[in-house]
Amino acid sequence: MQQLESLLAFDRQHIWHPYTSMIDPLPVYPVKSAKGVFIELADGQKLVDGMSSWWCAIHGYNHPQLNAAIEKQLKDFSHVMFGGLTHRPAIELCQELVRMTPAGFEKVFLCDSGSVSVEVAIKMAFQYWISLGNRDKKRLMTIRKGYHGDTFGAMSVCDPVGGMHHIFEAVLPQHIFLPEPISSFSEGLHPTDEAQLEQAFARHHQEVAAFILEPIVQGAGGMRVYAPAFLRKVKTLCEAYDVLLILDEIATGFGRTGELFGANHANVQADIMCLGKALTGGMMTMAATLCTDQVAMTISRGPTGVFMHGPTFMANALACSVSLASLQLLDSYGWKEKVGRIEKGLEQGLRPLLQHDRVKEVRVLGAIGVVECHQSIQVAAIQKYFIKHGVWIRPFRNLIYIMPPFIIEEAELNLLCQVMAGGLEEEAHFVKEK
Ligand SMILES: *Cc1c(COP(=O)(O)O)cnc(C)c1O
N or C: which end of the chain has fewer CB within 10 A? Predict the structure, then answer.
């Protein structure tokens, strides 16, 4: 067996990690195993997971029921093409998705990743208007500080500044960006937001195919939380001006915000919805784009008569089986109560950090806790501290945030919050010394 050192040297030399340099990559830590809320590193160090592997692993790692679902399916078959063939795992998953999502979502397109599901949603929106013979609606409208994925279509509606996507400006379609909402979760629609929305719709509606945004919580674009009334206003304007509404629930879906879907906070029905991340319980990649009958039928009555998309790994049977098992698990163990308890723990553990002079704002919703600092975080330094103290938290820019697996116990949640506080102290010294 190769020595770990030489494997890590190869990693440094040859393997891209997310958003990294090949000249000066940040350190990466080798994982040996993961179980429940713990990630075990190769040196035996056990870390409490604060990230759910980027929103995904809501039931924790190595869950026996999820493992069993994959093993069972593996014995029948793992994948067959979805063109001309179908299977029970896909059908049963889609039945469940239609049942659990807000009323109106009747048609399901299965795809391989969150970014692809956003591409599919955007394509549906454009094909919808083309099918109606409207050639003017060629743009999208969105808000700043959003994140929708890394492929080109998705990237074109990500926050242009924070996401560094502005460097692709010359090759990306130019969509319409409104300022990020200032309407806070508890205070309702701010008059400034309202006016900006009304003006933008009035001005651009004829060229806009769809408004796309993350409902209530904006994830990787800034970890912001906004008012349900803002979303309701967007919905009202979409209806008034004949613009489709796409909700990207890839991060917010499946209970993370305290409601099953982000849109449920506002009771808003969209035309198209993207799901991903926690869909498989974090076991493998899988996503879905759901739409209304109206959207699907219009596309199907259009000039091509078909929706023009079909990935090779569409409806992978292992992914469908494990997704179904994950959704059943979610149903069976009272996720709402668990997320509610996490929310309380985060409030108690993180709210006091507001007193720290580096901290600008603390935001908590459901099983999401965010500490926004005034300045950028020294990621490599603070990560080292976190690992030494037994937690896995990965900050970005000026944000330290956690979204632990729903199965986390009180003691582990407290540890996450305490180490976050300690990390801030440590980091403050680090920043001063520099
Ligand atoms: C992560 C994410 C995506 C992209 O999903 P990938 O699976 O990484 O392609 C899109 N939208 C939102 C809101 C996300 O959080």
Answer: N
Residue to probe by mutation, ligand 1, list 142, 145, 147, most atoms within 8 Å of CB: 147
pTM: 0.97
Q: How far apart are CA 290 and CA 278, in angstroms?
A: 16
Ligand 1: centre distance to CA 274 (Å): 9
Is residue 384 within 8 A of residue 395, CB to CB? The reply is no
Helices assigned H by DSSP within 101-243 = 114-131, 152-155, 191-204, 228-241
Cα–Cα distance measured from residue 379 to residue 68, given in angstroms and rounded to the nearest whole number:
37
CB 114 within 8 A of CB 287: yes
The CB of 214 under 6 Å from ligand 1? The reply is: yes
* 363 φ, ψ (degrees, to nearest 5): -130, 130
Q: Which atom of ligand 1 is nearest to the CA of 149?
A: 4
Structural domains for the chain: 87-332 (3.40.640.10)
Give tens-digit pLDDT for 134-165: 999 999 999 999 999 999 999 999 998 876 67
Reported as a single tens digit per residue, the pLDDT across 301-357 is 999 999 999 999 999 999 999 999 999 999 999 999 999 999 999 999 999 999 999
* Catalytic position from the list 112, 193, 248, 271: 248
